[in-house]
Amino acid sequence: MDARHPQPAEVPAPALTLPGCPLCDADGGHLVVRLPVCRVIRADEPGFPALYRVVLNDHVAEWSDVSDADQADVMRVVNTVERVLRELLHPTKINLAALGNVVPHVHWHVIARFDWDSHFPAPIWAQPQRAVEPGQLSVVSQLLPRVDDVLRQRLLPS
Ligand SMILES: [Zn+2]
Question: What's the fold here for domain 22-147?
Fold first, then answer.
C-alpha cells in the first residue's frame, strides 16, 4: 500500500520536513486547502492578489526527485488552480513557474496576470513597468474568497 495515496479511511503519512525551511515550518501563506501530497496557499503578495502556490508537503528540492504518483497529484492540483483562476478572474494570462532558488522546497506558482498589472508582460520578479490603479487590484481581491471556495469544492473529496 502506498502511504502517500491513501484510501479515504487512512491517515496520510506525516510529511518529511527540514527544520528551518520556511515551507516546512509554516504553510507559506493563506492556507486554502491541505491535501495528502500538497497544499494550496494564497501568497498575499503586494500587487499580485491572485498569486497562488501549490506546495509539496514533503521537503524535496528538485521536481525530478518527486515520485511519479506525487507529480501527477501536484499537476492535477496546479491544473485545477489554473482553471479556477481563468474561470473566475478572466486574466490576460496565467503564469506557471517553479523556481525554488530562494526556497528550495518544491512549489509551483500559479499566477493570474493582467495587462494592467505592475509588471506585465514581464515576470512578476522583474522590474515594474507601471503604477497600478488600486481600484483594479481591489476588484480582483474581492473575488478571492469565491476563488478559494471553488478551489476547496473542486479539490476536496465530496
Ligand atoms: Zn521544506
Answer: HIT family, subunit A (3.30.428)
